[in-house]
Amino acid sequence: MSENKAASSQSDKQFKQRLSQIYHKIKNASQFMTAMPEIEGSILEMLGAERITIYQCVRNGKEIVATFKSSKESREIKVPFSPTSIAGYVALSQRPVLIKDLYNDNELKKIHPKLQFDHAFSEKAGLQHRTMIAVPIKEGPVLLGVLQIINKTDGGAFSREDTHHAMHLAQIVGKKFHTELQSTQGPYDYLVQQKLISASELQQFEKQSQTNKLSISEQIHTKGISLDEIGTSLENYYQVPFMGYQETLNLPKLFFDDLKIPFLINNLWLPIAGTKEEVIILLDDPSDTDKIMEIQTIINADKYIFRVGLVEDILRYLNINAHNIDKPNMFDVVSKMEVKEQNKTVASPSEVAAGEDLNSALEASSPTVQLVNQLISETARMGGSDIHIEPAKNNEPGIVRVRVDGVCQELLKVPSNNMDAVVARIKVMSRLDLAERRIPQDGKCKLKVRGKELELRVATIPTVNGESVVMRLLAGGGALPLEKLNLSKENMANVLTLTTHPHGLFLVVGPTGSGKTTTLHAVLGHLNTTEKKIWTAEDPVEITQPGLQQVQINNKVGFDFAAAMRSFLRADPDIILIGEMRDSETAGIGIEASLTGHLVLSTLHTNSAPETITRLLELGMDPINFSDALLGILAQRLMRTLCSSCKQSYKPSQKEIAQLIHTYGEHDFSQLNISSEDIRLNKAVGCSKCNDTGYRGRTGIHELLVASDAMKKLVYKNASIEQLKAQATKDGMRTLLQDGVMKIIQGDSDYSQLMQVVAE
């Protein structure tokens, strides 16, 4: 085993050395094509391949063109965006494909039903293609070309590892293409480069678009920038032609029989012209691969041509005012379902499992897409984190519940006969197996609601009454500022001190949904400077920050947290965030890294800061190394806050004050120098802004254990939780309950909410 690891490590090292040499030659060449003849042999040897073909996007939105071919074929090859060819499919889906046997039609059909390979063409050119890798060439989210690797030199088939190597090469080519095509870093960066707007103005437009109904392009246009200039900026970023609104254009009616206007409004795309053979699609974001694959599923054309357009222009084509979209009410949609079901019988789950195509049930129920979209849209509007779709017994209506501020509330009921179609729609969005209803499935999807991108994690679980679905709306956007975490003055000062250490281990702990990731990214936002190299491994990547190298864990291919940690240590980091120390291997590597000059941040699912120490020791961590590495542990919970618009201040009774003092601890409370006569609390009332609940939003309560010298000695001696807690308190730690009581006295929440998240 050790010999295999050593061989693998040596092979990996050789690959990186060769890739580095190729990178510098491509980077230093005036044009990509001038470098290829010199480095082609090195590339083929590095990949163990016979031939390579490199396609580049041309700015017409419909095809890619071969710029380099390892063959005698001199004819220019143009490949349209189409699922019928391998390069065209990769350009369309922007997903890598590994085909072990090009003569196996079943293998091609599993990738896409229309996918095929023209053996006659290759054989006519004197070539025999046996196995192939094709990967997208991208810079950021924007497609710039396709890389094809053909035939293993040893006569075998390409492997998953070969695909990873090809993707590394494609990243290097993408950087060169990005420069040659003069592509910008963002949709509106061209306007900044041309000094039509300033960088600070663009940032302001982006912020305002999150709070008002004006899109970024509308705000720019109101500053006197022409639509042509805005269109040119979009072209330079997306590498796709811009198309403005054309009043005389007639939309192709043949597509709109199967398309519903509310669906197109939510997703911001539409077929603008063409036929079933070749269709032109206008959309707001041509880099949105999920949207493009959904388009390809709904409009089953042979070829696709893309145009980028403004949100307001797309809505004008649909005869909708961008600021007053008239969507059907969610409950109206359910009513339509109920009426429809009086004249229609849908197969039971057992009948479907016996072989009925769920796609047909989905397509037959036209309100289904509207309902799912509006469920997601309404949950986002409410600030919800999860959507629970729950079947009921005896053909009773299914229940949809939404979790807002940590508490579930019923949103509506769905007719039992429509539950299968709703679940099927969600499965289609998440690329789950429609026919599989016996085992749980996990997936994710991205979509836009009113121009705002949302990412959802989806879990389906079979129950005795049918499939239950939970959709989690992931927190998008950037990091929360550290000062917004509502840390106490002492905790804030200690967190800043601990996390400015050049090396060591800092942990944030708590149950699922307690805000650990938000806290760690707030810390990273404070530490994120040009002098620091920061790597993160997360599952999933919810919060993104410029300047961070962020990695998505993929357990299906063996890329877990431990593997990420090992790779990070070879990448010269200053700071490492590892999403979770869920096993002894990950924890051991994290402690080792913190002892060798790295600041390591991570999370655990433990109930308190002292308990975290015993948990890690139980995982087999060496007490000496762990005590040396540990900087501090921040335990936290999220407590619902009173609605700022309707909460009322009042003078509490002596019983309420006594309850707070008892919870805090009489001795500790006496040290605060707070007179019970001066205490005023707030209570929930209820208004339209908080849906008459009295609560809106959540705040953190915290417990910070600082690894003092005395604490390190206890860790080394494997002390009990009671001893650790006593020392932490002596060092100044305020418990979760105590911090919660202080938040109540500050007027943030009330005692009932504290008791729901922390037990006495």
Largest sheet: 7 strands, mixed
If helices are DSSP runs of H or I spanning 4 or more residues, what is the number of helices? Answer: 31
Query: Percentage of helical residues?
Result: 40-55%
Distance between the termini: 50 Å
Oligomer: single chain
Quantity of strands, as a count: 24
Mean pLDDT: 85
Radius of gyration, whole Å: 29 Å
- Spatial shape: globular
Q: In what range is the share of β-strand residues?
A: 15-25%
Strand neighbour order, sheet with most strands: 18-17-19-20-16-21-24
Low-confidence sequence ranges? 321-328, 341-365
Estimated structural class: alpha+beta
Structure description:
Helices cover 41% and strands 22% of the residues. It is of the alpha+beta class and 760 residues long. The strands form 5 sheets. A 7-stranded mixed beta sheet has the order 18-17-19-20-16-21-24, with helices on both faces. The chain has a 6-stranded antiparallel beta sheet with strand order 3-2-1-6-5-4, with helices on both faces. Helix 13 (289-298) links the parallel strand 8 and strand 9. Helix 18 crosses helix 19 and helix 23 (584-595) crosses helix 25 (623-629). The radius of gyration is 29 Å and the shape is globular.
Essential attributes:
single chain; seven-stranded mixed β-sheet; alpha+beta; 760 residues; globular
Which helices and strands occur, and which strands form pairs?
Elements: H1 2-28, H2 32-47, E1 49-57, E2 63-69, E3 78-80, H3 86-93, E4 97-99, H4 105-111, H5 119-124, E5 132-139, E6 142-152, H6 160-180, H7 189-193, H8 199-211, H9 216-222, H10 227-238, H11 253-256, H12 261-267, E7 269-274, E8 278-283, H13 289-298, E9 303-308, H14 311-317, H15 330-341, H16 349-353, H17 358-364, H18 367-382, E10 384-390, E11 398-404, E12 407-414, H19 419-430, E13 441-449, E14 452-463, E15 466-473, H20 489-498, E16 504-509, H21 516-527, E17 534-538, E18 548-552, H22 561-568, E19 575-578, H23 584-595, E20 599-604, H24 609-618, H25 623-629, E21 630-642, E22 648-650, H26 654-664, H27 666-670, E23 681-683, E24 695-706, H28 709-716, H29 721-730, H30 736-745, H31 751-757
Parallel strand pairs: 8-9, 16-20, 16-21, 17-18, 17-19, 19-20
Antiparallel strand pairs: 1-2, 1-6, 2-3, 4-5, 5-6, 7-8, 10-11, 10-15, 11-12, 13-14, 14-15, 21-24, 22-23
Helix pairs in contact: 1-2, 1-6, 15-18, 17-19, 18-19, 22-23, 23-25, 24-29, 25-28, 26-30, 28-29
